[in-house]
Design brief:
The chain has 70 residues and is mostly helical. It is built from four helices and no strands. The chain starts with a helix and ends in a 6-residue tail after the last helix.
Length: 70
């Protein structure tokens, strides 16, 4: 069963006023611009500057037990 058939099965059990809301929402989705696929970043050099910041020793308790948070 594809997505359209699943939607149909769900909507046909709704009262007419709720089915109309679903139809209105479909109309809204059709007018909304479709999202553009994200472009993959090939150049990771902008992130290299943060490579030495994290050394892998993260202690959550120490993170929240800081003077500025008290």
């Amino acid at each position: 069963m594809n997505t359209a058939e699943k939607i149909y099965q769900e909507v046909r059990t709704l009262p007419d006023f709720q089915a109309q809301e679903v139809l209105d929402f479909v109309g809204y989705l059709k007018t909304k611009p479709s999202p553009q696929p994200m472009q993959h970043v090939q150049d990771m050099s902008e992130f290299d500057q943060f490579g030495a910041v994290y050394v892998g020793n993260f202690n959550r308790d120490e993170c929240y037990d800081r003077k500025i948070l008290r």
